[in-house]
Design brief:
The protein is an alpha+beta fold. The chain folds into five domains: 60-202, GAF domain (Beta-Lactamase), CATH 3.30.450.40; 216-352, Beta-Lactamase (2-Layer Sandwich); 368-529, Beta-Lactamase (2-Layer Sandwich), CATH 3.30.450; 549-621 and 667-723, 2-Layer Sandwich (Beta-Lactamase); 742-925, Catalytic domain of cyclic nucleotide phosphodiesterase 4b2b (Orthogonal Bundle), CATH 1.10.1300.10. It is 47% helix and 14% strand. Strands 1-5-6-7-2-3-4 form a seven-stranded mixed β-sheet, with helices on both faces. AMP binds at residues 816-820, 857, 968, 1020. GO terms for molecular function: 3',5'-cyclic-nucleotide phosphodiesterase activity; metal ion binding. The active site is at residue 816.
């Protein structure tokens, strides 16, 4: 039905049904589960299995959004605040606290609470030491409970956070009033795992070159501090900058007074800055008033932010305090990192203010070198090519420290070696064991080594000097750390040009230099990885696109092989298919060079069912002795989990072992093979690639992903016909036994028990109560009651396929859905039985009538004909000036029934087939409400002249049309509690259209579409009075037995009138 009901309306409030309404279409989105691979979860009270991860597409999207928001927030607030805010929103928590791990102090520290927690204290400490997520409904019942750390009675969740290949980053303590469920615990575990990926982004160093250069000041204390305060205030956009210092005991504190140019009298309590100086920790406080160490005399009486940084230099302890970030609510992560990077320069300026002439000269020299260093930072920041970057870094380093030679050694963790990427003064690269020599000592221990006489140090390796004739006198080696805190390399400086030993300034300079060096090397590495990933992902996108296009399997496989060949730079790529007849492999698709060795190597992989790499020696041995098949032991591991484990590295043993057999031979043939397998472990064939390049483990993992695409393509091709009807076949097997498929009796599982048949053909039939397979049972009962299965040889299998296909054309709209189709079919049968019409209509007409009722709203979009035309939607354009939706319903029905598996009319001859569709189309088209009043006028005029002639086919058509129209709006004639619920869902569908009309800038096509101003009782009074009641009264004239329907419509109308009259009194 495409309702076009005009009615005035005002307020629609208390008569709107509240709560869940079974008549509204239910949506059941796929709910995934969380899973975890390597960390356990502890939940007190019961030992419960950890749920699996949600569907990857859903979980990844949700968690990535959380982390993206968290990363965005770090631009405006400290890291701990960003993390706490993200977690608080994720779990709807009342309180969230991040306890950061302080390795130096061997304890946890909360910046928010400004409190320490020993590793062994509380559930927080338990989480840090056990590395598991802990959920407790009542923390005081936990064995590790500590009242000073943990909430006593409020449900709490503790989440450990880790860095990449490093120690624990911290523990998140989440508190709220309700107990955390299993899904939330799983989300916590997923967050913990995801944090590993993002951790390095939260801990990168930052420095601003120009500002840092300006912070190197000289002169009297007063002048230095004035300049420092001005530069810092302007750079950080803060209200004020303070300088503090403490004594050796760190118990007395003094603040610099700009009026007299001196530090003031010592005090024992300096508020928040006391914590900074006492514990040598940076504090970023969003609101000083809320800090536990707040002191009004020092921190003021205004709610403002503060960032405080300790500075230790030459035995002196200072602190710089930035008050009130004026451009943002609080200081952000970048502010923290920059102030941390600036602190050595500020400390140097402060400590040298009273060193006299020598100090002034030293300070000037130090300033010049720092400026040179920062120029280097500016230069290298834009270089991404590591082959260009490393020479640039080291040339600047030699110039900066004025040395004769320098080298940059990078750590090769796989081979446990040190490799030079730049060796100033030498012609060849140097490779040596990781633990060898002075550089090896720094690389393994992280210690700075400063040697004044190299030949007197037993660790010094004289081999290079002997080979080159160079004489090494002094050596300085300093480690380079990556963003994960690992030693990534070592900078080695040899022989100062002035002949002196390296001093403290050289060490500090090189330490600062290596910070830039580490950042630049990381950026270069990430840049190269991004290029590789871009290349790989492009291949995957192209393959996915190929799989989603309508191509032959041969075309898809060629696309896959081309992409795999490009990734490996291979000379040949081939797919061998397994022959069913003789179980042998034969080439199916091959691109590139000729296949020289047949299936020699592919056969081995087909038998082992595992990917394998063949190096040059193995290829030569196999070719030279073709009769002697290789009997080398195959790796004894389980198969790799395809694609997922390859991309995420859950099991790389097999491919790594295969890689270890690669002797690195270049310009010689190397072959790698991958089995192509179905989901049930059936081998379809083998993908083989040949190249002259060295094949890496990463190549093997990536190529195995390509093999999975090839397997999917082959399997999809093999099962293509089954796939087309797969969804029907699965359900058919579930409800219809094999022996019932070709019979005409109702299948056992689709029969309705006797106790449920009481309302089957009654006016109080409740369609939502039959949702699911119950709707199919109703249709079977309707067809069987007229004996149509046997009459027209419609088998159970055919009717099931028809019912499944036509039901899936109905959209999930509030009213005109599959439930409505079944409801209309039932009401039509109720009326036919009530008036005995099955004795008047022919079997042919009954079949057409039932099919028309089932199909009458197929693929309804939930919008009226008027809207489709006015909005110029596709259907409105296509069927303009005719019954838009009703014509579309006919088209959909024709498409479904014309398919052989669903053809209910296969037993009809050509004339009957034409007449059947003519009948169905006339019945469906009459449900257009635009024809409503003309139909009633015409039918009543005929009834005025006397009853219709049941022997006349035209009169019988009018009977059927009247019955179907009554069925289409049958909800108004059902008992009021059912009619009211149907009214709700119809209103919701009107509202849905009205919302779209408003969003499109259209006027409402009907007052019923106005969600905000609908008067439900008043609208129903108009609908009943002018549309429904005349139709049901006409049907009662046609069939007096249907007066019962008229009486029910009038009864319902009286209820709506009473509700409408009661409104003024209640208001």
């Amino acid at each position: 039905m495409c309702a076009q009901i005009a009615s005035s309306g005002s307020s629609f409030n208390k008569y709107q049904q509240k709560g869940a309404n079974p008549y509204f279409s239910k949506t059941n989105p796929q709910q995934g589960n969380f899973s975890s691979n390597h960390r356990s979860v502890s939940q007190t009270g019961a030992a419960a299995a950890l749920p699996s991860l949600p569907d990857p597409q859903i979980s990844s999207e949700n968690l990535c959004n959380v982390f993206d928001q968290m990363m965005f927030q770090t631009r405006a607030c400290p890291v701990h605040v960003a993390i706490e805010t993200a977690i608080q929103g994720l779990f709807s928590a009342s309180e969230t606290t991040l306890w950061l791990n302080s390795i130096e102090l061997q304890r946890l520290f909360s910046p928010t609470k400004s409190r320490y927690c020993q590793y062994h204290r509380g559930i927080v400490g338990e989480t840090a030491t056990t590395h598991v997520v802990i959920s407790v409904a009542k923390p005081s019942s936990h064995l590790a409970f500590d009242p000073e750390i943990d909430s006593s009675s409020t449900p709490s969740l503790y989440i450990p956070l880790f860095t990449r290949n490093g120690p624990i980053y911290g523990v998140i303590q989440v508190v709220r009033s309700s107990v955390f469920n299993h899904d939330e615990i799983s989300i916590a575990e997923a967050f913990s795992q995801k944090f590993v990926t993002y951790s390095f982004l939260l801990m990168q160093d930052a420095c601003s070159g120009n500002v840092a250069a300006d912070l190197v000041q000289e002169g009297a204390l007063k002048d230095v501090i004035i300049k420092l305060a001005s530069k810092l205030k302007r750079h950080f956009l803060c209200r004020a900058v303070e300088f503090w210092m403490t004594d050796e005991t760190q118990s007395q504190y003094a603040k610099y007074n700009p009026k007299n140019g001196e530090f003031g009298n010592p005090i024992s309590n300096a508020g928040i800055v006391s914590q900074v100086l006492k514990y040598q920790i940076q504090i970023n406080c969003p609101n000083v008033l809320k800090h536990p160490n707040y002191l009004a005399e020092i921190d003021g009486n205004v709610a403002e932010s503060a960032l405080m940084q300790p500075i230790a230099v030459d035995g002196q302890y200072f602190a710089v305090v930035l008050r009130n970030k004026e451009s943002a609510p609080q200081f952000c992560t970048n502010d923290e990192l920059q102030l941390l990077a600036f602190s050595p320069l500020i400390g140097r300026s402060l400590s040298n203010t009273s060193l006299g002439e020598y100090g002034d000269n030293a300070q000037s020299n130090f300033a010049e070198r720092l400026k040179a260093l920062l120029e280097v930072a500016e230069i290298i920041s834009g270089v991404m090519d590591i082959d260009v970057l490393v020479p640039t870094i080291m040339e600047r380093a030699c110039s900066l420290l004025a040395t004769e030679r320098c080298s940059l050694f990078l750590v090769d963790t796989v081979n446990q070696e040190l490799i030079t990427r730049f060796q100033g003064g030498l012609d060849q690269k140097i490779r040596m064991p990781l633990s060898r020599g002075i550089v090896g000592h720094t690389a393994t221990t992280g210690q700075i080594v400063n040697i004044t006489d190299a030949y007197q140090d037993p660790r010094f390796d004289k081999a290079v000097d002997l080979a080159t004739g160079f004489h090494t006198r002094t050596i300085l080696t300093v480690p380079i750390y990556n963003n994960r805190g690992e030693i990534a390399g070592v900078t080695e400086m040899i022989n100062r040009e002035d002949g002196k030993a390296f001093d403290e300034d050289d060490i500090k300079m090189l330490l600062a230099f290596n910070v830039f060096c580490g950042i630049s090397l990381d950026n270069s590495k990430l840049y190269q990885i991004s290029l590789d990933l871009t290349r790989q992902l492009r291949g995957f996108v192209e393959m996915s696109s190929a799989l989603n296009k309508t191509k032959t399997v041969n075309e898809v496989l060629v696309d896959i092989l081309n992409n795999a060949k490009d990734v490996l730079h291979a000379s040949r790529a081939t797919i061998f298919l397994r022959s069913v007849e003789d179980d042998s492999l034969k080439p199916f698709v091959s691109i590139g060079d000729e296949v020289l060795h047949g299936s020699t190597f592919a056969d081995q992989v087909m038998n082992s069912r595992k990917p394998r790499f063949f190096n040059t020696m193995e290829i030569l041995a196999a070719v030279s002795n073709s009769d002697n098949k290789s009997t080398e032991d195959q790796p004894k591991h389980s198969n790799l989990s395809r694609v997922s484990s390859l991309l995420y590295g859950s099991d790389q043993t097999l491919l790594v072992n295969e890689f270890e057999k690669n002797d690195g031979s270049e310009n010689k043939e190397n072959i790698c093979d991958f089995p192509l397998m179905t989901n049930d472990a059936k081998v379809l064939g083998v993908m083989e690639l040949s190249c002259t390049w060295k094949i890496l483990p990463e190549d093997m993992k990536l190529l195995d992903c390509f093999a999975v695409f090839a397997s999917v393509s082959l399997e999809r091709s093999e099962l293509q016909e089954i796939a087309k009807l797969g969804h029907v076949e699965i359900q058919l097997k579930q409800y219809i036994a094999p022996e019932e498929r070709n019979t005409y009796d109702i299948p056992k599982k689709l029969q309705i028990p006797e106790e449920n048949r009481t309302t089957l053909f009654k006016i109080n039939f409740d369609a939502p109560a039959w949702d699911g397979i119950g709707h199919f049972k109703v249709l079977w009962a309707i067809m069987d009651t007229y004996n149509l299965f046997k009459e027209y040889k419609i088998t159970n299998e055919k009717f099931f396929k028809f019912a499944t296909e036509i039901s899936q054309t109905y959209n999930k709209v509030p009213y005109h859905n599959w439930r409505h189709a079944v409801d209309v079919s039932q009401f039509a049968t109720y009326q036919i039985k009530l008036v005995g019409l099955e004795k008047i209509l022919t079997k042919f007409e009954l079949l057409g009538f039932v099919v028309a009722a089932i199909c009458h709203d197929a693929n309804h979009d939930g919008f009226t004909n008027v809207f489709n035309v006015k909005a110029e939607r596709p259907l409105g354009i296509l069927f303009k000036n005719q019954s838009v939706m009703e014509t579309h319903h006919c088209s959909v029905a024709i498409d479904i029934i014309s398919r052989e598996p669903c053809n209910l009319f296969s037993e009809l001859d050509a004339v009957e087939y034409k007449n059947m569709w003519s009948l169905i189309i006339q019945l469906i088209l009459i449900t257009d409400m635009a024809k409503h009043f003309d139909f009633l006028k015409s039918l009543n005029a005929e009834l005025d002249d006397g009853p219709l002639d049941p022997t006349n086919p035209e009169d019988r058509l009018k009977m059927m049309q009247c019955i179907l129209k009554c069925s289409d709006i049958s909800n108004v004639s059902r008992p009021f509690e059912l009619a009211d619920k149907w009214c709700d869902v119809l209103c919701e569908e009107f509202f849905r259209q009205g919302d779209l009309e408003m969003a499109s800038g259209m006027e409402y096509t009907s007052p019923l579409n106005d969600r905000e101003h609908l008067d439900k009782p008043k609208s129903q009074i108009g609908f009943y009075t002018f549309v429904c009641l005349p139709l049901f009264e006409t049907s009662a004239r046609l069939f007096p037995q249907l007066q019962a329907n008229v009486d029910q419509v009038k009864s319902n109308l009286a209820v709506w009138k009473a509700a409408n009259e009661a409104k003024p009194a209640e208001e």
